[in-house]
Amino acid sequence: MSARAPRETSLLPGLRGKGAGATGYLLAIMLFVMTVTGAAGLALANGSRLVAAASAGDYVVQLPGGADEADALARFVAAQPGVTEATAVPRAEVDALLARWLGPAAREADLPLPALVEVRVEGRATALEAALADRYPGAGLAAQAETLAPLLGALRAVALAGLGLVLAIALAAAAAVVLATRAALAANRATIATLHGMGATDGQVARQFDRRIARDALSGGTLGSLLAILLLFAVSRSGGASLSFLVGGARLIDAGDLALLFLLPPLAASIAYVVARATILRDLHRQP
Amino acid sequence: MIAAFDHVGLRYGTGAEVLHDLDFKLARGGFYYLTGPSGAGKTSLLKLLYLAQKPTRGRITLFDEDILALPRHALPALRRRIGIVYQDFRLVDELSAYDNVALPLRIMGHDEEEIAGPVAEMLDWVGLADRATARPPTLSGGEQQRVAIARAVIGKPELLVADEPTGNVDAEMAGRLLSLFSGLNRLGTTVFVATHDLSLVKQTPGATLLRLDRGTFNDPTGALRHPPRREAS
Ligand SMILES: Nc1ncnc2c1ncn2[C@@H]1O[C@H](COP(=O)(O)OP(=O)(O)O)[C@@H](O)[C@H]1O
Ligand SMILES: [Mg+2]
After folding, report:
1. Residue nearest atom 1 of ligand 1, based on CA coordinates
2. Is residue B112, in this structure, part of any structural domain at all?
3. Whose CA is nearest to atom 25 of ligand 1?
């Protein structure tokens, strides 16, 4: 006993390759670029987050002219609540730092050297700040994160630009799907008129094309994405340290990000389906 | 009554009117021949009848529906009740003869099991059982015409409209195809055939002959305005 539910039979099983084929190639290229760009954007975003997290508890205490008190200062700072680590920067290093900024003349000028203490703080540094103000009124407390803020801001801006680029490519891909769909419709104009003549609905006609276009988008897009990911892996393996940040090493691309990248092709296929169907129905509506 | 034209006129774009003041009724179950010289407007009239074209004036009632008042989405249901043999066949080149003939049934949503038998039988009837897997471009003109006819009648339409359906076949095949039409007609299908071939008309006793000349009818007997009652049982 067969149920009489109108089953989905393809009306045009032989249509393959007539005008609708461009979608696969277009989407392969688009998804390749999209995946590489997306991976780079994610790596940058993750990188800036890692740097921000790593520097979150890092501070530098600076006491102008207090080079001789550096060790005492370090001991005082280490004794404060919340401080897990406090290291005086060795005099020679401070010397060198100054020399780098002011030139070798700095050494002869016999400038008063500051005391520098690198501090790692658990939680907030307000207690340390208050204690310092009490005991060493001239000392300054600077968070590393503040120093790094401009760099991190720039990294995030580039990552955001990457996201914008991915969206722009997605728009271009959607436009490409519209064009490929129109080409497929134009190539099959006579057949569509014949189907209409036999009483096919617009929905039935659209179904002959939208699935196919979505399927082409999915296979082409998956291919492009896979190639991109393979390329990223190859580069991270063989390309040396300079590029290894992209995939390997410091978990700049983790499993979640990879999953996100693998979601791009089905996402693109779904968008292709919706765009193609809307394009087809709009076009068909203008037919008699 | 299956169709009624009421002062129907048709022009393409801004051209001259190619059909004017067509005023006739088609009885359900009738068999009609439409003749007339080339360019008289036969194909244009058929297009109105199979809903490929809307009239520029007048009124057409088909299956008791005023087709000018119908919304677009209501047309497919009406078109499924009409079988069409196009003058230029309009087979789908990418599909086999079998798939071409199966199209109307698939559009109607029939299961493949329900389709296989009737399609094979129909191909057999038009003498193309051994060409079922052939694609139209590999078929001769006459073979294509037979596929087109098989496709038009497979769904047992209420109205069969055929434009020069025997133009590419020999007399014997023409007679065979005609008997297909007659058989359908006996089952209740209204048949409307445009043709140059008056020998067909002779083989169909009881058919009504219409003559179109420069876009309008010669109707000396008045059979069009007052069709004889031939309602199917
Ligand atoms: N799509 C069309 N656009 C413009 N003129 C047309 C079109 N189809 C037919 N005509 C014109 O309408 C007239 C009738 O044509 P047609 O209906 O094909 O006649 P027939 O089938 O009797 O040979 C002709 O003058 C033809 O040139
Ligand atoms: Mg004609």
Report:
1. B12
2. yes
3. B39
